[in-house]
Amino acid sequence: MGKDLRELLLAFKNGELDINEIEKLIKLNYFEEIGTELKLDINREFRTGVPEVVYGRGKSIDEIINSTLKLAENNGVALATKIENIEKLCDEIRKMDLKNYEVKINKRAKTLIIKNKNYKIKKIGKVGILTAGTSDIAVAEEAKDTLEVMGVETITSYDVGVAGIHRLFPALKTMIEKDVSCVIVVAGMEGTLPSVVASMIDVPVIGVPTSTSYGIKITPLLTMLHSCSPGIAVVNIDNGFGAGVFAGLIVRRCYRSHGVK
């Protein structure tokens, strides 16, 4: 597993590395190259608070697995999203000897999480995740898996959209009781659920429009962007990963302000 910049600087301070060694290691510690096409940013989490994630669309199964394994080797845990042929990935993973790793494949979200068994994810905070319908669950699960690798607990309630608005209220009550730092709301069709949620709670709402629709797919995005309820931030269509990252950073900042690193 690679060292982060803090560890390298401490080694230099303690006289374990000279100036030339520290310079070389800092340069090497920022990327890991696989073949001639893949260059992994293994130190992204140290800089930004978010580890590099493997975007699976357009990549071969071998590229996805090799990249995710290399990131897990260096960072302890890694996530791949938007995997196009999830069944083939399952078949290839079954053939591999990964006894030192914990592997989680989410077929609905089309995600892969690989974690070194010796790596402990530090747990901080809670985020609520709501979906308007069951067709939105795949995007919500992508957000959930993103938050999992960031160490954030999720409280989920699915299929609570405006078509049956009475289903929403118990879910919101539970999330407020469990003191979530923000709520991710995933909705397609006309995309009104984030506005309704934001009008009822005092925590930030992250709207995620989905491509679930009978008509024009951009409609839920425009609805969320034009919301009259304040307190909503909106990510792009089907971007569960982006919503998860945004929510995770909110949680980390909340806990850091209370002295938790």
Automatic annotation (TrEMBL):
Residues 125-256 form the PurE domain. One of its GO terms (molecular function) is hydrolase activity. It holds the Pfam family AIRC. Signal peptide: none annotated. InterPro entries: P2CMN_synthase_LarB, PurE_dom. It comes from the Archaea. GO terms for biological process: 'de novo' IMP biosynthetic process. NCBIfam families: LarB. This is 1-(5-phosphoribosyl)-5-amino-4-imidazole-carboxylate (AIR) carboxylase. It comes from Methanocaldococcus vulcanius (strain ATCC 700851 / DSM 12094 / M7).
